[in-house]
């Protein structure tokens, strides 16, 4: 199971998401939308305007969602 997090620097909800994933022992890849070409467009294509956007296979959500993170563990 690959977990990708679309993020940007100084994002409070992003940091909370990393901490929750770390606490569950889950590995993830962070994609900085300010540094990665096309990442912003990918987030918008999924229908989101708020970060973080977490993508796990076909499933995705926006914002800090401890309930969804718990379900992954």
From TrEMBL:
Q: Which GO terms describe its biological process?
A: cell redox homeostasis
Query: Which source organism?
Result: Vreelandella aquamarina
User: Which residue numbers delimit the Glutaredoxin domain?
Assistant: 3-61
Pfam families, per database record: Glutaredoxin
What name appears for this protein in its UniProt entry?
Answer: Glutaredoxin-like protein NrdH
Q: Which domain of life is it from?
A: Bacteria
**Entry function:** Electron transport system for the ribonucleotide reductase system NrdEF.
Gene Ontology terms for molecular function = electron transfer activity
Which UniProt keyword terms apply here?
A: Disulfide bond, Electron transport, Redox-active center, Transport
What family is this?
Belongs to the glutaredoxin family.
Tell me yes or no: is Acyltransferase among this UniProt entry's keywords. Answer: no
SUPFAM superfamilies documented for this protein? Thioredoxin-like (SSF52833)
């Amino acid at each position: 199971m690959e977990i990708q997090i679309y993020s940007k620097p100084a994002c409070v909800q992003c940091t909370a998401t990393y901490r929750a994933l770390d606490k569950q022992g889950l590995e993830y890849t962070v994609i900085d939308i300010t540094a990665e070409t096309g990442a912003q467009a990918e987030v918008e294509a999924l229908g989101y305007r708020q970060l973080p956007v977490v993508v796990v296979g076909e499933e995705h959500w926006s914002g800090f969602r401890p309930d969804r993170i718990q379900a992954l563990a």
